[in-house]
Amino acid sequence: MTLANFFTLESRDGEARTGRLATPHGVVRTPAFMPVGTAGAMKGLHWREVRDAGADIVLGNTYHLMLRPGAERIAALGGLQQFTGWNGPMLTDSGGFQVMSLAQLRKLDERGVTFRSHIDGSSHELTPERSIGIQRLLGSDIAMQLDECVKLPAERTDIERAMRLSLRWGERSRRAFESAPHGFMLFGIAQGGDVPELRRASARGMVDTGFHGYAIGGLAVGEPQAVMLAMIEEVVPILPRDRPRYLMGVGTPEDMLEAVARGIDMFDCVLPTRNGRHGMAFTRRGPVNLANARHADDPRPLDEESSWPATRSYARAYLHHLVKSGETLGAMLLSEINIAYYQQLMRDMRDAIVQGSFERFREQTRAGWAQGDITPR
Amino acid sequence: MTLANFFTLESRDGEARTGRLATPHGVVRTPAFMPVGTAGAMKGLHWREVRDAGADIVLGNTYHLMLRPGAERIAALGGLQQFTGWNGPMLTDSGGFQVMSLAQLRKLDERGVTFRSHIDGSSHELTPERSIGIQRLLGSDIAMQLDECVKLPAERTDIERAMRLSLRWGERSRRAFESAPHGFMLFGIAQGGDVPELRRASARGMVDTGFHGYAIGGLAVGEPQAVMLAMIEEVVPILPRDRPRYLMGVGTPEDMLEAVARGIDMFDCVLPTRNGRHGMAFTRRGPVNLANARHADDPRPLDEESSWPATRSYARAYLHHLVKSGETLGAMLLSEINIAYYQQLMRDMRDAIVQGSFERFREQTRAGWAQGDITPR
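YS: structure for the whole thing
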């Protein structure tokens, strides 16, 4: 049975596209970047700043939330949106990726994965059905199927085994999601590592199962960018044109520009906040390391033409001082500056696609990044 | 020669008073609480939140700023207000207190104090003249004289020696300040530990020297509250009625309520931000420890009647989760909630004094604190 479609494709320019995804908590304009609020909070930002920066949707991590404060507790408190105060669309991952990277004593079999919490050592099981159950308790607008993501490089047999398992888990996830109220969505995830025919087989199997939207997982896990883009090019032609496409865990501004050029609609990544905590700003002239002594006496802002107040008003000298002093405000300001830059890039891409000038925008944007930061004074 | 007076006493109710202190960067309504932005930043708050909470003035620490980024650098960047983006009145301390508590290899003599930086071990000298010079470079609206603060309990001879030295340093500070442009202010500091006659001698000496305003230092350094209040009662009658009175490093809400009742106009303290980082909220029903498990399932806000949005909107369960998870947002929200509570207390005291109902307000406020937090559910 075909699932209802909540995505409206609005305009296309080459493979790049804009659209609107209607969720129970509001509309998401695509291409969309989803800031990552791991444990129900955005590190260093108030929700109002995330919203003001232009984010329509944020991501929560099921693994963290199921362990603390717990899915049943969040459900009793009215769901993630009411609990956190974000009150907008939220996507949650399945929990599988973090079980693999954070939990202890993992044991994976056909049924699912058992593990011990990295917080208190308590024992937990995550199956496709339990993952959906948790995400329903959280009240996430978009749930993700449980999958197995293999770190690259990996043996082809391992990649294929994980890909086939992910397809079977996708079918179980869809069955488990059938009782969800109208409007809530479930996305499938294509795996297949860096092997083109496995990527295609995964995409075909996923589309056969049928989901509200389609994600590409298992990329940006150590492979060169060219491999990532090649895998997108294998998968995208197989995906239905009228459904949203989500590239998981990606990425740098350049990754996103190139992925949008290849037909991707949604992204999530911890880079803007994580790099912000480490003194790095994303700008239209490429990344700027505020810890560098060249900024110590520089009264100029990061980018005087930015539409984001903190980017165009705070002196580089002040940001440098905050970073060197380890002041929380430095991480707060650079995290919001980076989230705002990511959202500005999305807005600019959407505008360029609507105007049919995406190729020119892509060249100009790449040229800006290549130009590098303003000359020291 | 009498110094110009920028303080306007507006109303009195018993010993409690309201007034307005005109600084080069704006007017300060008193009684005033000055949040502490140690190194040119408020920990966990944006400047706009400090302003929105109702703070007219903030405090910067000369010791931290002289070491990093350096007073000459801040001067070249336009002064503290422009450097930080606070753009409002700022008071700076003399640096002496932190030299005593943070620096290494201190050596104190008549001339001043030499020390090694706790950041990089570099050697520095702080004299009354250099402290004024640094505070002038910083562009602070209100500079403090260099003094020697003795930790209590202490021997009377030590207390007296430090008090006499502080008086001599006060005279040198005033001479060094004579070239400051009109409108900028210098406050003297009364010392004298917990010895009434030394406190009175210090206050008389300080008033003889003459300053724009008068501070009481060396309290809230380990002595019981009753001793602190008794020392205020020794000093205040000696101070000119038409000048602002500042109780340094104080304190808890109760400390401030009792000090205002005894004629104090200004306060500063790290408690609201420091305790906020440790999961503690100040409320009109006393302190609330958000780390306590009783809040884990409680959807109610900290105080539904608060005028501050975060205080009346975020669920205790969410704040509890943020504190337990060590999320930055927890420290950010509780710091702003506490700063907002301190400012609300100041505003309420000012209103009560103007209305002649300070005594009733004081009783009701103490009763609220004594009542304790709302019943768990």
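YS: worth flagging: Chain A has a mean pLDDT of 97.
IM: good catch. Also The longest helix of chain A spans residues 328-354.
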